[in-house]
Please model this.
Amino acid sequence: MSSKSARLLLLTLTLGLMSPAVLAFLWSSSPKDLLKPTDAKIVSKGQQVYDMSCAACHGSKLQGQFNWRTRDAQGYLPAPPHDPSGHTWHHPSEQLFNMVKFGIQHYAGADYKSHMPKFERALTDEQIVAVLSYIKSTWPKDIQAKHDQLNQQARSQTK
Model:
C-alpha cells in the first residue's frame, strides 16, 4: 500500500469515527435537544440544504405530497409533510436524525417500502442536524415544546 493510500485510508477511518463523536457531542451539549431551532445560522444553513435535498419530495413549504397517508399501487407512501400537520414532531430528534442518515428502514425494517433515500453519503451530520433544526424552527412554539418533552422522555428511557 502506498503512503498516499495509507493516508487516505487513515483519513477515511478518522472521519468515520468522528461522525458519531460529533453527534454524541451535539446530543450531550444541549439539555433540551439535538436540534437548534433558535440558532439562526444553523436554521439558515438547514433551509438551504432542505431546499436542495428535501423540498422536491416534501414540498417547498414542508407540506408533503398529496394523500401522504395512503400507499400507492406499488405500496409506497407519498412523502409526509414536515409542518405541524405531519408526524415529524412525533419522533425524538435522535430518531429523526437516524431516519435521515440511515433511511426509514433503520427503524421500520428492511422490507418497508419508502422512496426516502439514505443520506449518510450525501449529507454530513451537521447538515442533517441543520435541516432538522430548520424544520423544527417552523413549528409553532407549542409543537416545539411537545417535541422537547418527547426528547426528554426518550433520553430518560436510554439512561
